[in-house]
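Researcher: Next entry in the queue.
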Amino acid sequence: MTTQVSGVNPRLQTKAITAIVIAVYAASVCAGEADTPDFSFHGFGTLGLVHSSENRADFTSSVFKPHGAGHSDDWSADVDSLLGAQVTADLTAQLSAVVQVISEENYDNTYRPHVEWANIKYQFTPDFSVRVGRTVLPTALLSDTRKVGYTYAWVRPPLETYRLAPLTNSDGVDASYRLRFGELANTVQLGIGRKDSGLSNNAGSVEIRDLWAISNTAEFGSFTGHIAYVKARATFPSLTRTLFDAFRLFGPQGAAIADKYDMNRTAIVVIAVGANYDPGDWFVTGEWGHLDSPSFVGNSTAWHVSGGYRFGQLMPYATYARAKADQLADPGLDVSTLPPFLAEPAVALNAGLNSLLSGNATQNTVSLGGRWDFMPNGCLKLQFDHIRIGAGSSGVFSNLQPGFQRGGQANILSATFDFVF
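Model: Structure for this entry, 421 residues:
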């Protein structure tokens, strides 16, 4: 996806971060504190192919992708494929900067690279630091490495859980503080920011304001635990201007529906809890998340559990994931009370509202897969997913076509080559 602060070009954001880094570094030089800068470069990527048995809709890995496997392509490389690069500059003992750029399918059907991270960090003490710029949004257990497929067993993190909070970064400031208790390391992170993101299939954009997040990550030997609380206000301008403003034209009844489901600076709260245990030969992991918003997004809960065992270079694994949304349909406007010339547009509005609500994923997925680390810094993965969609829901599928059955089933076959360098 291509994301940026409203009205600000991503290149200008990167230039602004660069200017700040130069200014702070120059001040360090004048104060006699600067050392020779140390630059490092890292890259990562995924080359993938996905097939879906459901050809009347698209299976995608993100709400920001316009196409996927199924209707658009029998075999799709757009679902998981990406290429990323990261440059880190250690300017002084305390000051560093990072820029990460990723090329993947964007909401506008291009692979134009976008800036995933661009921030400067000042390390006040070995355990306390502050970052300014575009930073990771620490919602889930794998937030830091969500885009780096080589770092986890699956082809992709379970969609049921990770679609609850699809945004991966924010523009603002965050601070982290680490406490040590013997072998236990506990890191608390607090951030504030904002975000604008384009949506796929000409659905406009989403504007995130007043975003703040707090997370806690505990690490003890082979165990990692994570909990996060994220709150923000969201606006979907295109939906307000088209669907919900049209509902308000139908008087008090329509206004009540619009007030219930519109998202115009509406609060969204996400709570996430996760844990992972990986002693080396095997792993077991699980996450639970809940989203709450007085809008068409409603209340959703998702969770997954997964485990695998390593046999040398091979690691088979299995995952069960489940998502449930509370609101999938609404009667809408009472057409029987309307004159004939208003009944037809009212029916269309009701259909639009229910199409929107049915997009709240209710489904469960059983996944079986395997990873083969056949080369240093590179692995092949194969994964089979059987998805059972809840009645009245379209699940994680998008780009719905005539004949698509809400509440149906689908099989997904995915193969990827993940690498780092």
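Model: The helical segments are 10-30, 159-162, 237-248, 251-261, 340-358.
Researcher: Noted, moving on.
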